[in-house]
């Protein structure tokens, strides 16, 4: 903290607001920009720093949150126009981050209802990938990725139901973390699926993810699923000797060649670093069947969570049709979907025994052009961690063609969130890791 | 094994068959008696013993299984008349027990479809409590309890979805165990609820439960939920210093006074033995609401599991009506029921931290007369362990009025099954434990 400018927090906040004003007309990452309150929070942070009363590593750092996470006084629209009443309280994560001194800049564009992965939003605009104009940033937390990748804010929060933090992080060359289920309270989240939803951070480096996670973690009386937190075990100091499960070739059959090549390069670099790669099968894991089960559970739970709002205005016909499908699904099919999730969670628990993580590509392809056909399998590799309730870290990989980045994820045992962050820090220097210019 | 008669297994089997012939016309515990195959299995056991090749503590012991557990060549009727085709293979538990030398005597009466707790079965007869003629043995594993309590076989298997092993054990003065979810494979079980079902043993003492559990436990490739078994930790050698959570008085408000008195006596004896009783609340636990959620999940899953059989004959109108309710339930209500189960499992996990077990009455009342109004809350205390996926041991308690026994259960952390058995053995000598005359 030596040589910290007296107005460092305010400077960062003004820089964020300036950058948003300059580029977000094209990117469309933000839904709401909270200039006045952000400046006030930044000044308060600067005052604390001047008094030697810093609240920690996030004090004074600007951030923004996905539009399905409540911010007091701001509508939580969840990518629709159906919810225009201002939230009466901050989501627990927002309250904890503000209490740690982080400066809230605004709320972020997302795929409508979090149910999709392109962030081509009919109400809030087609969010653009800052790495390539006209391309999707992924989704559903597309605004959360675009805001960081475009340099508007250093980190954001997204939500991840079947991959919605990790897919946009992958498409935009960022690091992202889906925490262990229950570690980060979801109080104040507009649910897509209360069974699968997690709130997680996106940033340009793993250390920031770890700092944000530490502030957000811990039980919250208002969220029954957050009642148990085992705490963090010892953090790894070297990749040498770590054991990572890797899928067989058949599991990756639908990947683009450029993704497979990048994944091969990543695996080779792990071996060079002394890690042991172990062929691993998750019993019962069929990515397509899992995606369909997760989608049905999401449609049923989202329709139930949104309730009467479904009958009002402000939803697209396509989104409403998906929820209507959930409202009409047969009981037996719903029960079978929950059963698939239960069984796969046990299969994952068995597969991860004795491993530090399972390594997979994050998505089967890279970002693609808005308007192109949307690949059905975008969440095929990411949904596994949601179903298992396990933490997963995505990291950006260099593509051999020098184009848009690829990405890999490490899925860890439950409660190994900070171990994953520490692994990410150890991997940061590996040659295949992608870095922005 | 010294001084073992050369025909000990056959003698026990003949004794079982003789006893069944003598008393089961009144008790109606058995659906099928397998005299010939039982005698053959017993002779084979005697031959092994004579050759010094005993397969272990169960070799030559007669047992019987509830009618929803598959026995090759015998119809698995699940308390109905809808499934008269002989099973093509033994359930995994039956195969394992037979492989350990146990002698299968037959299949046992149960509440129709396992969905109820009186075993007043419209097709297989009103099963009687051997401790008092005309009274229910409980259910749904009523035949499993009655067969042991009437001295027909030394132990049986039942199944427990919301209490269906523990309630009949309680009503008949037996010990019973509901194992950790996934510890005992359910391959070959006709499901009531694949989410909540467990197969567990009933016997006159805890040691027998432990021996049976040891043989039944372990992964089975055909049951995805059995993929993980953590193994047994150290077993306790004394009750001194053990920590048991106890509910507050409000949670027990609906108990009969005689049950509360017996529970008080049990708690006092635990304290005398040096145990520490800790007031414990399971966050979110509302017994009535939990029962309704578990019932809805069971109705939905059972209707799905039975499939086309629902449209045929051999089911009572009452049972069919419950499953029809499950087939027509609204998706949102189903999803909320699964959510309640998920949240309560987390609440239990938080509550059990630092405890060796949570101690509760097994049922709010004792056995009652067939034909009397059926108490709504029979499973109010037992369903908690099914939802938590946790093991639970029920043990019989003496009633102050000298009448039918009461019962308490100890619910342990996941995978503490053999610890519970060992605790039971340590508790066996406590004064409040009920013993048959």
UniProtKB/TrEMBL annotation, chains A, B:
Entry keyword set: Hydrolase
Descriptive protein name: Biuret hydrolase
Organism: Flavimaricola marinus
Tree of life domain: Bacteria
Classification via Pfam families: Amidase
Enzyme class: hydrolase
Ribonucleoprotein keyword on record: no
EC number: 3.5.1.84
Domain annotation Amidase: ranges: 13-420
Gene this protein is translated from: atzE
Family to which this protein belongs: Belongs to the amidase family.
Coiled coil ranges: none
Gene Ontology terms for molecular function: biuret amidohydrolase activity
The keyword Hydrolase appears for this protein: yes
């Amino acid at each position: 903290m030596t040589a910290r400018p007296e107005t460092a927090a305010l400077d960062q906040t003004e820089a964020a607001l300036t950058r948003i004003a300059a580029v977000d007309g094209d990117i469309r990452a933000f839904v709401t920009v909270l200039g006045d309150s952000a400046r006030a929070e930044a000044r308060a942070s600067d005052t604390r720093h001047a008094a030697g009363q810093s609240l920690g590593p996030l004090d004074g750092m600007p951030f923004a949150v996905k539009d399905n996470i409540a911010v007091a006084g701001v509508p939580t629209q969840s990518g629709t126009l159906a919810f225009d009443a201002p939230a009466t309280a901050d989501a627990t994560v927002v309250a904890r981050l503000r209490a740690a001194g982080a400066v809230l800049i605004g709320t972020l564009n997302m795929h409508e209802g979090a149910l999709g992965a392109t962030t081509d939003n009919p109400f809030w605009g087609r969010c653009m990938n800052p790495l390539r104009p006209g391309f999707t940033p992924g989704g559903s937390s597309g605004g959360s990725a675009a805001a960081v990748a475009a340099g508007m804010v250093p980190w954001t929060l997204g939500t991840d139901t079947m991959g919605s933090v990790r897919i946009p992080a992958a498409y935009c060359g960022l690091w992202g973390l889906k925490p262990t289920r229950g570690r980060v309270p979801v109080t104040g989240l507009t649910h897509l699926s209360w069974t699968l939803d997690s709130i997680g951070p996106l940033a340009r480096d793993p250390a920031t993810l770890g700092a944000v996670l530490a502030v957000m973690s811990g039980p919250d009386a208002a969220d029954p699923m957050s009642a148990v937190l085992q705490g963090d075990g010892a953090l790894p100091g070297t990749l040498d000797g770590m054991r990572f499960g890797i899928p067989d070739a058949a599991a990756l059959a639908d990947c683009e060649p450029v993704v497979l090549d990048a994944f091969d390069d990543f695996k080779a670099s792990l071996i060079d670093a002394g890690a042991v790669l172990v062929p691993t099968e998750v019993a019962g894991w069929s990515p397509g069947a899992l995606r369909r089960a997760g989608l049905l559970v999401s449609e049923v739970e989202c329709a139930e969570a949104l309730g009467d709002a479904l009958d009002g205005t402000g939803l697209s016909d396509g989104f409403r049709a998906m929820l209507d499908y959930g409202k009409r699904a047969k009981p037996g099919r719903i029960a079978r979907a929950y059963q698939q999730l239960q069984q796969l969670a046990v299969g994952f628990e068995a597969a991860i025994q004795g491993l530090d993580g399972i390594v997979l590509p994050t998505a089967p392809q890279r970002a693609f052009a808005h308007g192109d056909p949307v690949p059905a399998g975008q969440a095929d590799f990411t949904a596994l961690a949601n179903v298992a309730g396990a933490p997963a870290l995505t990291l950006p990989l260099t593509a051999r063609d020098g184009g848009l980045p690829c990405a890999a994820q490490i899925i860890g045992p439950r409660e190994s969130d900070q171990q994953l962050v520490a692994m990410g820090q150890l991997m940061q220097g590996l040659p295949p890791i992608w870095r922005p210019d």
